[in-house]
Amino acid sequence: MKEHKPYGIYEKYVKRPQDFILSLGAAVALSPVILTTAVLVKKKLGSPVFFTQDRPGKDGKIFKLYKFRTMIDAYDENGVPLIDELRITPFGQKLRSASLDELPELFNIIKGDMSVVGPRPLLVQYLERYNDFQARRMEVRPGFTGLAQVHGRNATTWDDRFAWDVKYVDKITFLGDWKIIFDTLRVVLKKEGISSDTSISMEEFMGTSADAERKSS
Predict the structure, then answer these.
(1) Which residues are registered as beta bridge partners of 81?
(2) Torsion of CA 156, 158, 161, 165, to 10 degrees
(3) Among 49, 92, 163, 185, which is least packed by CB within 10 angstroms?
(4) DSSP 75
(5) Could you tell me if 208 and 145 are in contact, meaning their C-beta atoms sit under 8 angstroms apart?
(6) Range of lowest pLDDT (42-51, 120-129, 198-207)
(7) Gap between the Cα atoms of 155 and 164, Å rounded
């Protein structure tokens, strides 16, 4: 992975302090919502209240992502977890549709694992499936929201999603970040792109075939 060169002064000196101030302020302002959501998750889904999972951050460094739990523990006769559609509850679906399940990620931003705006952190197993272009999304900190989230969210294709991610990586600006933040509020309020056509979130990324890469090059 090549070394990322900041686009300008904002990305190099302002973005991280701004992330810290915004996430800390949001965590304080939304603390009643966060606490209430935690109590409801405990009551309706039990423990643990938080869902934690390893995710790749900047330069592929692994960190613990925090979310509110939205699914129950349910397994088949062989002890294999059931598919997401069978484990998510109506309450969990409401949390996802309002993006309340993602509020604990504010603490990932405060810690420096994530940024307010950037490519969303995906699964660890995808690391070996990225081609060189797709891996460029990890040149910067992953984000709470990003260009892909305001251009289709989970309802877009993987190719489009990666294209939006790399477009963001190549030109990070103050006005661009704030446009994404305000567009995110619109998307969340309208509950757009929560699910793909075939999944309650996003289909698993299985990699890009050699034929597809040749066609796109």
Answers:
(1) 75
(2) 170
(3) 185
(4) B
(5) no
(6) 198-207
(7) 14
